[in-house]
Amino acid sequence: MKNFVFIAFLIITLTFPDIVFATVVINEIMPNPSSGDDWIELYKTDQTEIDLSGWKIEDSTSVAKTFSDGTKIASASSYYQVMLSNRLNNGGDTVKLKDNNGNIINETTYSSNPGEGITLGRFPDGSSNWGILTSSTPNSSNSSLVPSSTPTPSITPTYTPTPKTNDTSTPKPNTPTNTPIPSATPTPNRILSPTPTPKITKTVTPTKAPNPTVPLTPTPTPTEKAGSVLGEQDNASTPSAGNQNKRGWIIVSILISLGFICIGIAVFLSFKTVARKRKFLELERDRFS
């Protein structure tokens, strides 16, 4: 893993030596000069000479400056002023620094007009702290930042008297002594006791007792006739049930046969239609052939 990282580092350093060994940033911007051209200042963070041949300065629309061959930031200097005529928008713009391969080296965006003859810059040089500088300093160390107007007193709202609302809320829990609870309790307890007791035992016992005491056999002679009559009625009823079963089977068989007949008719008609279609297709083939 260490060997892989070392090889990758060598490839990057050999391919992009200026980016690895020297860092160039946009350090100061003059978008609204009182006279002359707009300009930016580049800042080099170390003492390595940087070749800017083919590098470009772009704004939010297009290329504003292309460095000619042989343009360099010497190793002994750290600042390089770039004149841009009137390309920068006063009210806000984006400034990009690209190398000769089109890679973005640095990019800065401002969104408001700092004022006529006033520059935006980093303080200290090369840092990430941007702001309005107290004075423009092309090709030299940036001046300090203008102290921002601190809106701190307007932010601190004196809304501490809000506990007055708490005072109004404290008597509220004292007043609602909700005492409707005992009114709901006595009503359901009295309903359950009288209803279930009288319905269970008194009405059932007297009705079923006289049923077994009805033996209607005082004289033996008429019972035999009744028995014979009942026997004849049973014998008469049994063949009627058999006839009904036979009729049921006959109806079922008729329905089954009708079903088979219908299926046969359907199959016959389907074969007939298939035969017609085949004849029609043969006729069409003969016609086109």
UniProtKB/TrEMBL annotation:
Q: Key word Transcription regulation present in the record?
A: no
All copies of the LTD domain together span 17-112
For this protein, the parts annotated as crossing the membrane are 248-271
The annotated regions of Pro residues compositional bias extend over 212-221
Record keywords, A-Z: Membrane, Transmembrane, Transmembrane helix
Specify where the region named Disordered lies, as residue ranges: 129-226
Is Magnesium a UniProt keyword of this protein? no
Bias category Low complexity: which stretches? Answer: 134-189, 198-211
| Protein name according to UniProt | LTD domain-containing protein
What is the originating organism of this protein? Answer: Candidatus Gottesmanbacteria bacterium RIFCSPLOWO2_01_FULL_39_12b
